[in-house]
Design brief:
Layout: H1 11-26, E1 33-36, E2 50-56, E3 74-80, E4 83-88, H2 100-112, E5 117-126, E6 135-144, H3 165-174, E7 179-185, H4 194-203, E8 207-209, H5 213-221, E9 225-235, H6 246-267
Parallel strand pairs: 1-4, 1-5, 5-9, 6-7, 7-8
Antiparallel strand pairs: 2-3, 3-4, 5-8, 6-9
Helix pairs in contact: 1-2, 2-5
The structure holds 8-iodo-guanine.
8-iodo-guanine binds next to strand 5, strand 8 and strand 9.
Amino acid sequence: MNHSDTPTDTPYALAEAAARRLAELTGIERHDVALVLGSGWLPAVDALGEATAEIETTDLPGFSAAAVAGHSGKIRSVRSGERNLLVFLSRTHYYEGRGVAAVVHPVRTAAAAGCATIVLTNGCGGLNEAWTPGTPVLIKDHLNLTGRSPIVGANFVDLTDLYSSRLRALCKEVDETLDEGVYAQFPGPHYETPAEVRMAGVLGADLVGMSTTLEAIAAREAGMEVLGISLVTNLAAGISDQPLDHQEVIEAGRAAAERMGNLLGRLVPRV
Ligand code: 8IG
């Protein structure tokens, strides 16, 4: 128990408390679809629809302040047709060292708020040279290289169709040029060495990043249908001879904003 009368002694109870506070602060009793916006995706948010409310993550139990340049610690409630979208404008990353429960707390809060579907987006490095910076790629499967799970206890969650084939098919109806790839989550915060990128390729990865897999697992545990979309903002280390630079990552996102906005704006009403 914390100082109020709200039980927060498990991650699930903490998420329930956050969802209740979210409903109070936004005036929206239930949300339907959650989105987590990763690096480069923030400018796309306005294409989703009209903001009903915007709150600071830190106003909800269990959230901590955003730590990365280009990440905004806000949650927006957006009206889209008949549905309420819950949009996280930033995420907590594994490399922040706050633990896996903190990383997946937004996902569990979204589930507790009523969301049956979650769209996880990220910025990442690409192993396929055809994916120039600014190319969106659907995540078809992942390699969780963190060595961790967000699940505690003997709950053997099936991840066979973790990245919903139904939702991926829907995406391709919206944009038939979309490719798919396997996303490998490295712990970060440093980028990979060229040897690590080659290793990831041998293991079957097409994309390398520092997020998403732990969140997807927690979303599946919570019974949500998961869609993952990566924005390739750079070629992974050693794929090109260019050094990697966080500022360039932000600029690639800015340049791709219109396409990403278009994609999400057309996609979300159909998921
Ligand atoms: I944006 O090349 C972005 N995030 N691990 N590697 C990893 N994370 C990333 C990269 C990258 N680019």
